[in-house]
């Protein structure tokens, strides 16, 4: 249980650091947020918990494929905000699009024998 609390605290501190950095400098906050720090932390925790190289490799490969359909979120949401849509509806629509793109990506990859 203590180990889980340490993992949660470190992960939470990372998010706190990104959001505080973004308050001062949106560009620097975006740079830090764009780093794959969460993915790196996830595989570090997974390695510490399992020591399983195959599981780590599978995790990293699946992460790659799921990053691609998430990229439009970073273009769609700003576009919606700039045309006057409220924050929450813009976020909801961008997230809905991302979920649809995740499903399409998984279906497309399955056609080529890639299992996520």
What can you tell me about this protein's structure?
By secondary structure, the chain is mainly alpha-helical. It has a domain at 57-116. 85% of the residues lie in helices and 0% in strands. It has 6 helices and no strands. The chain has helices at 2-24, 26-34, 37-50, 53-70, 73-82, 87-111. Helix 3 (37-50) packs antiparallel against helix 4, helix 4 crosses helix 6 (87-111) and helix 5 (73-82) runs antiparallel to helix 6. It is flat, with a radius of gyration of 17 Å. The two termini are 29 Å apart. The model has no long low-confidence stretch (mean pLDDT 91).
Topology:
Blueprint: H1 2-24, H2 26-34, H3 37-50, H4 53-70, H5 73-82, H6 87-111
Helix pairs in contact: 1-2, 3-4, 4-6, 5-6
Percent in strands: under 5%
Number of strands: 0
Class derived from helix and strand content:
mainly alpha
Helix content: over 70%
- Based on CA atoms alone, the radius of gyration comes out at 17 Å
Give the ordered list of helices and strands.
HHHHHH
Could you give a short account of the major beta sheet?
A: none
Mean pLDDT: 91
Q: Shape from CA axes?
A: flat
Brief synopsis:
With 116 residues, the protein is an all-alpha fold. 85% of the residues lie in helices and 0% in strands. It starts with a helix and ends in a 5-residue tail after the last helix.
What labels would you give this structure?
85% helix, mainly alpha, 116 residues, 6 helices
């Amino acid at each position: 249980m203590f180990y889980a609390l340490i993992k949660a605290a470190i992960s939470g501190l990372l998010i706190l650091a990104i959001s505080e950095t973004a308050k001062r400098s949106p560009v620097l906050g975006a740079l830090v947020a764009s780093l794959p720090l969460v993915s790196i932390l996830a595989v570090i925790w997974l390695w510490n918990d399992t020591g399983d190289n195959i599981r780590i490799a599978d995790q990293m490969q699946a992460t790659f494929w799921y990053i691609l359909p998430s990229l439009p979120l970073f273009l769609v949401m700003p576009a919606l905000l700039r045309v006057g849509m409220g924050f929450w509806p813009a976020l909801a629509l961008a997230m809905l699009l991302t979920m649809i793109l995740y499903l399409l990506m998984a279906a497309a990859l399955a056609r080529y024998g890639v299992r996520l």
